[in-house]
Design goal:
The longest helix has 20 residues. This protein starts with a strand and ends in a 10-residue tail after the last strand. A hairpin with a 4-residue loop joins β9 and β10. The strands form 2 sheets. Strands 14-13-12-11-7-10-9-8-15 form a 9-stranded mixed beta sheet. Strands 3-2-1-4-5-6 form a 6-stranded parallel beta sheet, with helices on both faces. It is globular. By secondary structure, it is of the alpha/beta class. The protein has 3 domains: 121 residues, Rossmann fold (3-Layer(aba) Sandwich), CATH 3.40.50; 207 residues, Dihydrodipicolinate Reductase, domain 2, CATH 3.30.360.10; 48 residues, no CATH class. It contains 16 helices and 15 strands.
Length: 427
C-alpha cells in the first residue's frame, strides 16, 4: 500500500513511525503534504530518504501517487482532504475529529457513500483495554438495560493548557473542545451503548484561560508567548519549545515560513474556545448521558459511571496524579509524564451482590497497549473483532454531531434534536 500524509505536525509522527517500524511490511510512505517546508524537512529526515513533497494546492497531484491518505492536518480542513481523497477512490485514515461542522459531516458522509475507498477514523481510546472492558461488559448485559451514563473528564494544566496556546485556541480551527477533544468521549459512549444521540443540551464557559480571566485574577502584563519571556523556567504556563528538540524543529524553527506560534500564552488574547463544559444527551433507546469536561484541573483522568436495570459499572482512571510545576516538556506526550501516579480501576456492582473488581490487563505502549491494536487495524485491516473497535465515517459523524450540537445548544440556550443518522432535525 502506498501512503501519503497531509498535515505534518506532532500527530503525524505516530503513523509515520509505524510505517517506518513494526508496520513497515504493510506499506510505504510515497508523498508528503504540508503548508510548511521546515516541517516537511523534519519528516524527510525522519523517513531517511527523498519523498515527493507537495503544497496543499497540489494535493490532486499527490493523489496520483498514493493508494491511501493519512489526514492529520488542522481539524477545520479535514473535510477538504478527506472528500478529495475519497472522490479519487483512495482509502483514508483520518485523525479525530472527522471534521468540525455539521455541513462537513454531511459532505463527508455523501463522499464516503459514493466512494470505492475505505475511511477509518482513528479513535484510539476504543482500543484502551479499560474502555474495551466496559464495552464487553455492557454488551454482555452485565448491568442489564442501560439507563444512564455519567462521564467526567479532567484535563490538567499540562495537557489542558496546551489547547490554549496552539491553534486549537481558535474555534474556527478546532471547533472547540466539545469537538476536538470530547469527540473521543462522545464516541466512547456511542460505542459503549451501541446507540445514537437523539437530543443534546449544553452549557459552556471560559473561566480560567484567556486575557479577561487573567486580568480578573491580577495576572497583568503577560508576555504574549513564551520565547524570551522573563518568566520562562519559573512560570508553569510558559512552554519552552527550545527545551524539546522535536518541538523546536517542528514549530520554533518553522515560524518564519507561516507565522504559526506554537507557544502562545494561555492567558493572552485570541482564545475563543471554552474550558468548562457540561452536556446532557438523551439517546434513542432512552439512556441519559451527563458529561463534563474541565481543562484546568490539577490532575488528569476520568470517571465513568454506567447505571442499568441490573446494577452499575464504575471506571476510575488517573492518567496523571499531579501536575509538575513546569511546562518545559512535550505536553502532548503520553509516556513518562502520564505514568506518574497513574492508576485504573473497574468495578462491577450488581444488585444484591458484593462489588466485583474487574481485571483490565493491557500491553506495552501508549493507552495500555491500545495504540498498537489501533495501528494493527489501520495498517493490517480489522481482525474478527467482536467489539467492533474500528470506526468508519458513521461513527466519526455521530461523535462530531454530538459536539457541534452541544456547541449550538450552549450558544442558543436551547436543546438540539438529532435524527437517527446523527444529523440535526429541522428546527
Amino acid at each position: 500500500m502506498r501512503y501519503a500524509f497531509v498535515g505534518l505536525g506532532h500527530r503525524a509522527q505516530m503513523y509515520v513511525d509505524a510505517l517506518l517500524g513494526d508496520w513497515s511490511d504493510t506499506g510505504e510512505i510515497v508523498a508528503l503534504c504540508d503548508t510548511n517546508r521546515t516541517r516537511l524537512r523534519y519528516y524527510l529526515d525522519r523517513i531517511g530518504r527523498d519523498v515527493p513533497c507537495f503544497a496543499p494546492e497540489e494535493f490532486g497531484e499527490l493523489l496520483d501517487l498514493a493508494d491511501a491518505v493519512v489526514v492529520t492536518a488542522v481539524d477545520a480542513v479535514h473535510a477538504r482532504y478527506v472528500i478529495a481523497a475519497l472522490d479519487a477512490g483512495k482509502d483514508v485514515v483520518v485523525e479525530k475529529p472527522l471534521c468540525t461542522t455539521a455541513a462537513d459531516c454531511a459532505a463527508i458522509a455523501a463522499a464516503a457513500e459514493r466512494s470505492t475507498g475505505r475511511l477509518v477514523v482513528t479513535f484510539n481510546y476504543r482500543y484502551s483495554p479499560r474502555n474495551s472492558a466496559v464495552r464487553r461488559l455492557l454488551a454482555d448485559g452485565a448491568i442489564g438495560e442501560i439507563t444512564s451514563v455519567h462521564f467526567g473528564w479532567a484535563l490538567d494544566t499540562i495537557h489542558g493548557a496546551d489547547y490554549f496556546r496552539r491553534w486549537h485556541r481558535d474555534k474556527a480551527n478546532s471547533g472547540g473542545l466539545l469537538v476536538h477533544k470530547a469527540t473521543h468521549h462522545f464516541d466512547l459512549v456511542n460505542w459503549w451503548l451501541d446507540d445514537a444521540a437523539a437530543s443534546v443540551y449544553a452549557q459552556t464557559s471560559l473561566r480560567f484561560y484567556g486575557a479577561a480571566n487573567a486580568r480578573a485574577r491580577g495576572l497583568a502584563d503577560r508576555p504574549g508567548r513564551a520565547r524570551h519571556a522573563p518568566g520562562l523556567g519559573t512560570d508553569p504556563f510558559l512552554l519552552d519549545l527550545s527545551a524539546d528538540p522535536r518541538l523546536s524543529r517542528l514549530y520554533l524553527d518553522a515560524e518564519h515560513e507561516d507565522g504559526y506560534i506554537r507557544d502562545q500564552d494561555v492567558f493572552g488574547d485570541g482564545v475563543t474556545i471554552d474550558d468548562n463544559m457540561s452536556v446532557l444527551v438523551r439517546y434513542e433507546r432512552g439512556a441519559l448521558l451527563t458529561y463534563s469536561l474541565n481543562a484546568h484541573a490539577p490532575a488528569e483522568g476520568y470517571r465513568v459511571v454506567v447505571d442499568g436495570t441490573a446494577g452499575r459499572l464504575e471506571l476510575d482512571v488517573v492518567e496523571r496524579a499531579w501536575t509538575p510545576p513546569h511546562a518545559a516538556i512535550d505536553p502532548t506526550a503520553s509516556g513518562k509524564e502520564h505514568a506518574a501516579g497513574a492508576s485504573e480501576r473497574l468495578v462491577l456492582h450488581r444488585h444484591w451482590r458484593e462489588p466485583e473488581e474487574i481485571a483490565i490487563g493491557g500491553g506495552a505502549g501508549a493507552h495500555g497497549g491500545g495504540d498498537v491494536l489501533l495501528l494493527d487495524d489501520v495498517f493490517r485491516g480489522p481482525s474478527d473483532d467482536p467489539l467492533a473497535r474500528q470506526a468508519g465515517y458513521r461513527a466519526g459523524v455521530a461523535s462530531v454531531m454530538v459536539g457541534v450540537s452541544a456547541d449550538r445548544s450552549a450558544a442558543t440556550g436551547l436543546p438540539v434534536a438529532l435524527t437517527a443518522d446523527g444529523t440535526r432535525q429541522a428546527s
